[in-house]
Amino acid sequence: MTDRVTVGFRWLDHGRGLELPRQHSAGAAGLDLPAALEFNEVLILAPGEYRLVPTGFSIALPEGYEAQVRPRSGLAARHGITVLNSPGTVDADYRGEIKVQLINHGPAPVEFRRGDRIAQLVVAAVSAVTLIELDTLDETARGEKGHGSTGH
After folding, report:
1. Is residue 151 part of a domain?
2. How far apart are CA 119 and CA 107, in angstroms?
3. Among the four residues 8, 29, 70, 131, which has the most C-beta atoms within 10 Å?
4. Which helix (H) or strand (E) element contains residue 79?
């Protein structure tokens, strides 16, 4: 890791008692996100079904940063579970609860319980962008070749 970013964090009532999201290894990019379900609740995600799952917290990103909600590779590999709007973007000025839109692309129902790690959150710098309207764009070797044009 090169830079450390400080992000404000606040548990919501239904998230209290869950493990604080963190990077589980020195080289991990994402903080694992918990499912903030009720204590005895079991969320069953049927094949083809998608649900918005609460994490029980909100954050305050510094200006110039975003947080991306991304799938966990283990859930995808074992069960076909992914984040429907991957990556979901959390803007620096958003202060509401972080929620994860999960979808089951697998062949079987998958159960989730309170505290299960359902996705990961990656904090990244963003650029301020100014578009300049031009009549023509500079030429490149690729040009206007689109989807699939750079590989086999």
Report:
1. no
2. 20
3. 70
4. helix 73-79
